[in-house]
Amino acid sequence: MQVLTVPNWSFGRDTSLLGQFREELELRGLEVHYLGSDVDHNRTVSAFSGSHDSVATTLVNLCGIAFPRIDLNRHVGVHPRIGALDVCPIITPWGSEEAEVDSWVDELAGDIADRFEVPVFLYEKSEKGRHEAHLPALRKGGFGGMLGRKLEPDFGPVHAHPLLGATVLGWRDFLVAMNFDLDTSDLAIIKRLAKKVRALRAAGDPRFLGVRSLGLPLPSRNQCQLSINLTLPDLTPVDPVVEWVQEQCVSQGVRIAGSELVGVIRDIDMEHATRLPVKSEQVVRTR
């Protein structure tokens, strides 16, 4: 079984740790699609694919490398998080039997919980009716909101790890994540744009079906960022969303300082993703 994973880690300012991640990924013979850190988010996103055994081994090894270096009590960053390994989506762009994926995800989640004494919540397709299935709900309140509270994870202890918090892990559909850095420090502008995206989604605008958005400050750059996830890329192509952001920025008199694809995109999405910078290694071949 071939799988893709896009783990998000709560560190983004430790360049030596990022280097260790790069070395580990190069050792394993995996296809590495993305590895990038952000200082303001204080977050690292990785994306790699391969056989389910090699992906599981690598993920556990990366936890062993990262966890001794992370203390969420000292963590400062603009991105919401509840764990050192904050969220770990498992994706099967090449198809797999549901029972096979479910069994493997359960085994992986249980292994991480047992080895590192971290509560693991299953989400999206892997959630089994014990709690909310969607990431924003599971992450509500953040790391601090979990401390001292009895939890109901699918695996592991019923209290958050005092340094590492909890992990959200599960099988989900493909999504496209992109960021737009705006050349302004006025967070109100970004918040308004993010609110507009949510309002258009709620109104049923076909360009925004399943689109999630966050407005975040980037203090080290004196900028703000509009972060957008397309959770239904089969229904909502990239270009119309990018065009909307560009139009809104023109109307607000704000320059887009940069845009990026975070993680991966499928080859079948590329025809309608002409307005977003994409590196060749970020394209997952599905055909």
CATH domain fold name of the largest domain? Formiminotransferase-cyclodeaminase, Chain B, domain 1
Distance between the termini: 16 Å
What's the level 1 CATH class of the largest domain? Alpha Beta
The domain count comes to 2
Query: Do you know the CATH architecture of the largest domain?
Result: 2-Layer Sandwich
Helical amount: 25-40%
The number of distinct β-strands equals 13
State the low-pLDDT regions, or none: none
Global structural class:
alpha+beta
Give me the strand/helix succession: EEHEEHEHEHHEEHEEHEEE
Shape from CA axes?
globular
CATH superfamily of the largest domain: Formiminotransferase, N-terminal subdomain
Mean pLDDT: 95
Largest sheet: number of strands, sense, barrel closure: 7 strands, mixed
The gyration radius over C-alpha positions equals 18 Å
Give me some keywords for this one.
Formiminotransferase-cyclodeaminase, Chain B, domain 1, 287 residues, alpha+beta, 2 domains, globular, 4-stranded antiparallel sheet, Alpha-Beta Plaits, 7 helices, 7-stranded mixed sheet
How would you characterize this protein structure?
The protein has 287 residues and is an alpha+beta fold. It folds into two domains: 2-171, Formiminotransferase-cyclodeaminase, Chain B, domain 1 (2-Layer Sandwich), CATH 3.30.990.10; 176-284, Alpha-Beta Plaits (2-Layer Sandwich), CATH 3.30.70.670. 30% of the residues lie in helices and 25% in strands. The chain contains seven helices and 13 strands. Strands 1, 2, 3, 4, 5, 6 and 7 form a seven-stranded mixed sheet that branches. It has a four-stranded antiparallel sheet with strand order 9-10-8-11. The radius of gyration is 18 Å and the shape is globular.
